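agent: user wants the structure for Small secreted protein from Streptomyces salyersiae. delegating to structure tool.
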Amino acid sequence: MNKKLAAALSGGAVLVLTLSGCSDDSDDKVNDWAKKVCDQVQPQLQKIANANAAIQEQTADNSKPADVQKTDSAAFQQISQAYKSLGAAVDSAGPPPVDDGETTQKEAVKELNASSTAYANLKTKVDALDTGDQAKFADGLKGIADELNKISTNGDQALKKLQSGEVGSAMSKQKGCQKPTASAPPPAAPSAPGSDEESKPASPKATATEKA
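agent: tool returned. relaying tokens verbatim.
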């Protein structure tokens, strides 16, 4: 019953990182900016990847609704926190030293914060699902998967702009801005939704770099 949700999650979009390293035509100032951002980005991308993996683990048809709810809730919480931290990282780095850098930076921060809010709302919705009725629960998950698809396909234009041109080239060379793999296997979802431990499944737009 969680398969649609897992599929939607893996189709989302994230700040980074299918950027392919191209020729180094970035100047030192742009490279310094990219390093400042990417050093802070990697831990958050790892949390998102781990959260996605946790949801993937709960895709079996015989998964209990209560277990799915607990895992998904913790994952959405962690993804929401990760996007908030990504927004803070781009914000604290200041505008990239390129034409129209300030506008690009502000729009990217706005999108990342909006994604954080969207995932927090999904957590609230999954928490409210009725785990006592499997059919209703499955319908509720389908609705959440549909919302995830909308989050994935809307509102990432500013992030795409941030990843283009000279700034994108500089970011693509930074290890911190490259797509991580989830630590395997992800442990059971934490009971405390606010858990911020690296080893616990967090949670999306996570492996969503495919769209960049």
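agent: one observation worth passing along. The radius of gyration is 17 Å.
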